[in-house]
Specification:
mainly alpha; 247 residues; 2 domains; two-stranded antiparallel ribbon
Length: 247
């Protein structure tokens, strides 16, 4: 999570308008879910991957690291479709499904990876606080936006406490034996929640000391969204959707 947020804060397109990137990702996901053409799915996959790696210059290692877990879920679903367990014989037998099922599973794999590439594009190029700020300008309730940002901060506190505790265990040879590993991690998990709540209380006191009155504001340095790029993105994906329905 930290790697994704760090990349979103430092990539080449970090100053591009959030509205353009959000519209691009959302339309790519919607078109990939509604299209019936493998060519359209492949085009979306190539486009979003190219924009992430070439346009925003996200490192390939970061892109692959962020895609491993969701891609694993997609592949698990693929294997569940193409593998058939037969109980008709004396012993269970594992075999492949028919050609039509394999073709359908392959199309779903292509659709899933296309939608995943759009989601990774948004996550790796746009910080979460800018997305929430945009949604708030579009009408999202301010209290919901503050709760979302607060939960995001709590996750960061949880990871920070977990990493510092893990580092302390390694320095004190808490990983030297298997028994010590289990005991050390049990103590770490038992102390994790009180430490996170203590850090959250200090954060609340710090906000109150600085005149916090219920609104979390962040400085932004992104370009202003213009109507022409937004219309061009919408028209391009509308054309892809038309091709997908016509195929």
């Amino acid at each position: 999570m930290r790697l994704i947020d760090r990349t979103a804060q430092t990539n080449r397109w970090r100053y591009r308008p959030t509205a353009e990137k959000l519209l691009l990702a959302v339309l790519a996901i919607l078109v990939s879910l509604m299209s019936r053409s493998p060519l359209v799915e492949a085009a979306i996959l190539a486009l979003m991957t190219g924009l992430t790696l070439v346009g925003a210059r996200v490192p390939k290692a970061v892109f692959l690291s962020a895609s491993i877990v969701p891609l694993g879920f997609i592949l698990t679903g693929l294997f569940a479709q193409i593998l058939v367990l037969d109980f008709t014989g004396p012993l269970p037998r594992l075999s492949l499904a028919g050609p039509e099922v394999i073709a359908s599973a392959g199309f779903l794999l292509l659709r899933g990876t296309a939608a995943l590439s759009a989601l990774l594009f948004l996550a790796l190029t746009t910080p979460l606080n800018r997305i929430i700020a945009l949604l708030e300008r579009l009408g999202l309730n301010a209290h919901i936006a503050d709760i979302a940002l607060l939960m995001f901060r709590m996750v960061w506190l949880l990871l920070d406490c977990l990493e510092s505790g893990e580092r302390a265990l390694k320095n004190r040879l808490g990983h030297s034996t298997y028994r010590g590993l289990i005991r050390s991690h049990g103590l770490l998990l038992a102390a994790l929640l009180p430490r996170v709540l203590s850090r959250a209380r200090r954060m609340e006191n710090g906000l109150a000391a600085r005149g916090y009155e219920g609104r979390l504001t962040f400085l932004g340095a992104e370009d202003t969204a213009k109507p022409a790029p937004l219309l061009a993105i919408t028209a391009a994906f509308a054309g892809l959707l038309a091709v997908g329905f016509a195929a």
